[in-house]
Design goal:
Elements lengths: L13 H26 L4 H22 L1 H17 L5 H14 L57 H4 L8 H11 L1 H34 L2
Helix pairs in contact: 1-2, 1-6, 1-7, 2-7
Amino acid sequence: MSGKHYKGPEVSCCIKYFIFGFNIIFWFLGVAFLGVGLWAWSEKFSVFLGVIFFLELTAGVLAFVFKDWIRDQLNFFINKNIRAYRDDIDLQNLIDFTQLYWECCGAHNADDWNLNIYFNCTDSNTSRERCGVPFSCCTKDPTEDVINTQCGYDVRLKEVLEQQNYIYTKGCVVQFEKWLQENLTVVAGIFIGIALLQIFGICLSQNLVSDIKAVKASW
């Protein structure tokens, strides 16, 4: 994303598109699958698969209904981990990986790093990292073979437009929504594949039970 930056509102509804598509897919398949589940209700394995599918369908509905809550929880999770960034090396690596992978900085923007005691811009902060961001917020420089871990120092003292030359200015929540939109077809395909495997398992188990009953009847 070096040299390319996006306006904030353009992906603000991406997660809605993803959840809506997710919901339509499972509602479309739900009628047929629940019918098969009821047909196979008398057999334990078929019932087990039917229950799993019903739970998946319920999760899809709840995800659509509570999409705003999910976004808020993601925002809360990221900001909570920003506060504890220097407290746990594993957590620090997770945040760095997230920001590098999605080319983002903070939950909504780089100023979210004011939540961290080492990066905030308060006058009482004597840290060298004051008004900076972690190196994982920095835009990639293809000419550098070694990561410059100090690339984010003092970067938030610059004007916002100038910051774009040095760091990612999009938040990770927005970038995650954008990623979902771009990979909607793949995600939907995975869910459809799983659902088809489930109904295939129900059919196989029902056929097996029918064969066993036919063998017993011939005795």
